[in-house]
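New to this. Comment on this protein:
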Amino acid sequence: MDFKDELKQLGDRVNKLKEITKTEEATKNAFVMPFLKTLGYDVFNPHEVVPEYITDIGTKKGEKIDYAIMKDGHPVILVECKHWVENLNLHDGQLLRYFHVSKAKFGILTNGIIFRFYTDLVHPNKMDEKPFLEVNLTDIRDNQFDELKKFHKSNFDVESILNAASELKYTNEIKNLIANELNSPSVDFVKHFAKQAYPGKITEKVLEQFTQLTKTSFNQYISDVVTERLKNALKREADDSLQKSAENVVQKQDSESKLDTTVEELESYYIVKAILRNNVEGSRIFYRDAQSYFSVILDDNNRKPICRIYLNGGKKYLGVFDADKKETKHEISSIDEIYKHADGLIAVVLSYGASDVK
């Protein structure tokens, strides 16, 4: 099992066990220690991981941090843990104090689900107020796997991580600023666009109007970009696979049925695959054509229907099945509207059993 798969498996474990993990100590044992183990460290070897590491703070002697990851006899990463229900924003000061008196270059604050990585980019030997990397173990983004891999024992290099940390820190801050402006545009942000789009004087009333217009415009723009990219990706996949898919469907059809699978039906199939790709391997999703409808099924099994698509009549319909295999038809104006029913399609696949879904 590679590093990425190990982390995904650990994320699944956290989701399953968190509700019965009642204490901070249980959080450390069930989530944090397995995470450190996934990073390649022997949590039972005090040469590599020291629990309850003593860090004297001024006149306070014997202050302890939960874990110190060691290299050449010195701490390189300090780890402060909290119960998984704790809000980490209330506890970063404690890690900051430990970091200040330690030789470690990195600090991790975690509740077993969220892992925040800190260093001293702003002032040497003083932990930054904001982390340069924050990872949700149950929802790790693709680019974060590579960042976490740098902390693996076999890859750990202080200078390499510090070089990447600066870019990560400010990239994340800019992304957060953009997200804040899109959710709640500031006056300066709105004025920037209003001055270029509105020919008159920017009054309070105009500013109020353009605040909502700015927010709506950005949301629509992002939606258009995402939709266009999905369409282009689907078109490329369809172009690459159309001939092969057509051959496969011919093999599965009765030679006497003379069914004609249309390009629009195949495009609808690829849309369903795109919606489900985070929940099930694409190789497990099949389609079968019939005289009156085009069906998408799981594992090439008619007893696992996902949906039926009706494109041959005057109106178009999408029939989505539920856990009881009851079909509910939805009228659609075009196959693009299949995206609007993503939740129902995902739900029916999950209803066939978590052990069947990857």
The chain has nine helices and eleven strands.
